[in-house]
Amino acid sequence: xxxxxxxxxxxxxxxxxxxLDALADLLSMCNVTRASTFEQAKEQLExxxxxxxxxxxxxxxxxELLEIAIKKKVIALMVTAHALSPEHTVTSFRxxxxxxxxKEEMGKIEIFLNDVLEAKEEGHNLWGRWLDRLxxxxxxxxxxxxxxxxxxFWENVTLHA
Length: 161
Hints:
By secondary structure, this protein is α/β, with parallel strands linked by helices. It has helices at 17-26, 38-47, 62-71, 86-94, 109-122, 128-142, 151-159; strands at 9-13, 31-35, 52-56, 75-80, 99-102. A 5-stranded parallel sheet has the order 2-1-3-4-5, with helices on both faces. β1 (9-13), α1 (17-26) and β2 form a beta-alpha-beta unit. The two termini are 19 Å apart. The mean pLDDT is 91.
């Protein structure tokens, strides 16, 4: 796999310092800026250039930060523990997130970022690799019918992957 992550300017946002520490370590090949509040993250997004934003959903109003990131043309990934559900996954995609990462899978963040950057570079659906990477996790977590509630959505994602 080609390394598309090294040197990228990445904003990481979470209200838990241990999560910020872990993400900073996992993304040590990037130019990482940390924010632990909505206000800090908003100021960073509005005043500094970033390639990628890794946004927690709860605690820092991640969906509002997602809107700002999209306006600034920053690729945004949502990371969550408390908002982990098929519904939040769909909401994140519909609001423009490039990927949705359960915090338990955060150790693979470099792989996920490479997937997103590769898809963007090649003009593919940014969520195409998401199902490849996380469908098994969701089956274990939510059961084999986890996509049924949003069946049309997931079929559409699969068709355009």
